[in-house]
């Protein structure tokens, strides 16, 4: 176990290109998410991702993999834009909250730009307050889509048997997104994980609110954290946008 005082200055973030490296991700998946073998992403998919224009990164402290990121190429069906879909980013618990997630995302951005992408997308749990703050406020993503139960009910201890509802983060890496003044907000209360029943009730409320505002073309442009929870800040569409 790493202490909070242990420096992460020596952590190396490298592009992975060997099957043996991909196999190391299995232990991280099991530790971070508690996935059963059924839900783990197999090493061969990492191989495919690299061969078809994806980005596969590993974070190492010495010879130990302490985190990784897997991204695959995607294509928007509406406008044909190609983008990088960041499918998984996992960091061992003792190294979380210390800037390593940001370092992984910055290296992912660098690799994506090198490959010619201008957009990175990924999904995240609307109820995870710390992660939402990181995505929206630290990285500056925009959110305009809500996908209910994307992955079904999984074996992960983090999902706790709840439907895997997800927001879709849109991270424009080829320029700053336009800022608009928020007019609506959606609260995720601090006690959202107090019990499975509480989680499901909040999830249902948050889902309906997002569906309502996204149907009106609102976009998540900010996030605030306070003692009572986290608040998504949403802005209406710009003038002329239907």
Characterize the structure shown.
With 242 residues, this protein is of the alpha+beta class. The protein has a domain at 12-178: Aminopeptidase (3-Layer(aba) Sandwich). It has 5 helices and 10 strands, in the order E-H-H-E-E-E-H-E-H-E-E-E-H-E-E. The protein has helices spanning 19-33, 43-51, 100-114, 129-138, 196-215; strands at 12-15, 55-61, 64-75, 82-91, 119-124, 142-147, 166-172, 184-189, 219-226, 229-235. The strands form 2 sheets. The protein has a 7-stranded mixed β-sheet, sandwiched between helices. Helix 1 (19-33) crosses helix 2 (43-51). The longest helix is centred in the C-terminal third of the chain and has 20 residues, at 196-215.
DSSP strand count: 10
Overall CATH architecture of the domain at 12-178: 3-Layer(aba) Sandwich
Average of the residue pLDDT scores: 93
Q: Would you give the CATH topology of the domain at 12-178?
A: Aminopeptidase
**Coarse shape:** globular
């Amino acid at each position: 176990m790493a202490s909070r005082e242990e420096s992460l200055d020596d952590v190396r973030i490298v592009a992975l290109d060997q099957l043996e490296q991909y196999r190391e991700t299995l232990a991280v998946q099991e530790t971070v998410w508690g996935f059963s073998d059924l839900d783990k992403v197999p090493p061969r998919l990492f191989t495919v991702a690299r061969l078809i224009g994806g980005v596969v990164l590993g974070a190492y402290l010495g010879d130990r993999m302490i985190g990784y990121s897997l991204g695959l190429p995607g294509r928007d069906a509406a406008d044909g834009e190609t983008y990088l879909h960041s499918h998984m980013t996992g960091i061992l618990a003792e190294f979380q909250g210390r800037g390593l997630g940001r370092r992984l995302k910055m290296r992912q951005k660098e690799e994506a730009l090198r490959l010619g992408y201008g957009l990175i997308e990924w999904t995240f749990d609307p109820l995870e307050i710390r992660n939402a703050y990181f995505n929206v406020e630290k990285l500056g993503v925009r959110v305009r889509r809500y996908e209910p139960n994307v992955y079904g009910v999984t074996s992960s201890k983090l999902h706790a048997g709840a439907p895997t509802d997800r927001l879709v983060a849109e991270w424009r890496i080829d320029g700053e997104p336009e800022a608009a003044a928020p007019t609506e907000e959606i609260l995720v209360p601090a006690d959202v994980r107090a019990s499975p029943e509480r989680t499901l009730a909040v999830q249902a409320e948050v889902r309906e609110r997002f569906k309502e505002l996204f149907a009106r073309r609102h976009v998540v442009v900010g996030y605030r954290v306070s003692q009572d929870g986290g608040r998504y800040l949403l802005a209406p569409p710009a003038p002329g946008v239907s």
